[in-house]
Fold Glycosyltransferase.
Amino acid sequence: MSFDIMLPFWGEPKYLFEAVESVLAQDSEDWHLTVIDDRYGDPQVPQYLAALDDPRITYLENDENLGVAGNFRRSIELATSDYLMVMGCDDVLLPNYVSTMQRAIATNPQVDIIQPGVETIDSAGKIRWNLADRIKYKLRPNTSAGPQILTGDNAASRLLVGDWLYWPSLTFRRETIAATPFREGYEVVLDLGVVIDILMGGGKLLLLPEVTFRYRRHDESVSSVKLLDGSRFAEERSYFAQARQAAQARGWKKSARAANTYLTSRAHALALLPQAIKHRNKNGAKTLVRHAFGRL
């Protein structure tokens, strides 16, 4: 079974090269890698890929900078296999990623999203588990007894309590993700919104115990720079209000309750409040307090 690995690129080339090397190291050869250069402008990238001279690798450059959402859309448009992943340009596949996905799909052909086991690494590639990762681990359903398939209210409510998915590690059924557009007006919660929409459309989420992916954390990520100014949480409040309404319309009581309380998100805002005060970020502190103690 052919498998598409889509790799939008903007940033430090050395991380991209490491990501590409991890694809080349797969223990399954039935894959195609598409590198989408979002107008970063570093000649090292096309030169490096051309030197590889591998017919399984395609290099494309966007006509204009598309950003996160735009590159995800283009990745879906360009994919031709039934299943695909949109990999982060600084993340790393373990050698068993593609083969594990292929076995999972063969065993569970009805699933729409697959979440494998994930390790997180720092800028130097060392395995690091910060507080967010520990919380994700606690919230993630237990797969020690084997893979789990989650659907409906049960799946959505678990994610609305706290998003324990690692977006760049996910494999999607192309037909499903192509029919589920990003919600307009969001940056940080784009990924959660898409997954919840797939679940509300009857989609199935498969969780695997096998660790196949390394997710790299940087302090300068889009979500982290929006933390202290509170803009991330304003966006989350808006999304949770929409999710609550959608859940209520479907009669999904657990999901509506989880969206209404958004406990993990509140706790996150509260934990950041001392930093906002320390940095004398008055507006950010107000937004954090409102998010932590306010109502939708």
User: Anything to note?
Assistant: The beta strands are 4-9, 32-37, 57-61, 83-86, 92-93, 113-121, 148-151, 171-173, 204-216. The mean pLDDT is 92. The two ends are 45 Å apart (CA to CA). The chain has 13 helices and nine strands.
